[in-house]
Automatic annotation (TrEMBL):
This is Transmembrane protein 199. PANTHER family: TRANSMEMBRANE PROTEIN 199. Keywords: Endoplasmic reticulum, Membrane, Transmembrane, Transmembrane helix. It comes from Oreochromis niloticus (Nile tilapia). InterPro entries: ATPase_Vma12. The chain crosses the membrane at residues 136-158, 170-189. It holds the Pfam family Vma12. It is found in: Endoplasmic reticulum membrane. One of its GO terms (cellular component) is endoplasmic reticulum membrane. Its main location: endoplasmic reticulum. One of its GO terms (biological process) is vacuolar proton-transporting V-type ATPase complex assembly. It is a multi-pass membrane protein.
Length: 199
């Protein structure tokens, strides 16, 4: 908090003039304070208490200039705030609390990671399981396509005994392959539903 002014040249000139012209009227204590302030090197610091005394003196004597005129080119003196050194025990406690909070945050982030399961199975077992599922899908699709092609071929070859025209034979083979394909899809979907339904 400010407790003094940093005075400028205007203050110095007017106070010097005041000291020269009013030797008898200026109180001795105030005169000594002002002389001490003027003798100090730059920046000149004027305490608030001395400024109050000057103001009272100027009011009592009815001088033609006022305190705000004296301090026109002055500024507040704000002393530098010295921070007290930190308590080492407090710093150590804060470090412990920070480490504890960081550890709790780490545990919260990794709470759903099971390290034993990762170590037991490893990455290769996951890869093997994925390859198995891909292999099962590929085999199922291949089986589906072979069934449809076989149904088409059987219907086409068997329809030669019923129909003589090629177009009719192809249409009947497509109808038979479509029926077999739909039946195969129905069975496949039911099987997948059963697999997905299992825990």
């Amino acid at each position: 908090m400010a407790s003094a002014f940093v005075v400028g040249d205007k203050f110095r000139n007017k106070v010097t003039h005041l000291l020269a012209n009013s030797e008898s009227a200026l109180p001795r204590a105030l005169r000594e304070e002002l002389e001490e302030v003027l003798e100090k090197p730059e920046p000149t610091i004027l305490p608030f208490s001395t400024a109050r005394k000057i103001k009272k003196y100027l009011q009592d004597k009815g001088h033609p200039f006022y305190l705000h005129e004296l301090l026109e080119d002055s500024s507040l003196h704000l002393p530098e705030i010295l921070k007290p050194p930190r308590n080492p025990e407090l710093v150590a406690r804060l470090e412990k609390i920070k480490a504890k909070l960081a550890n709790e945050e780490y545990k919260r982030i990794t709470r759903n990671v099971n390290t034993q399961e990762i170590n037991r199975h490893g990455v290769l077992s996951d890869f093997r399981q994925q390859v198995r599922s891909v292999k099962a899908v590929v085999v199922t699709i291949f089986n589906f396509l072979v069934t449809i092609v076989a149904a088409f071929a059987c219907s086409y070859m068997g329809s030669q005994y019923l129909f003589t025209e090629t177009a009719t034979r192809v249409i009947s083979a497509v109808i038979a392959a479509s029926v077999v394909g739909l039946a195969e899809l129905y069975v496949l979907v039911r099987t997948m539903e059963g697999d997905l339904g299992e825990p």
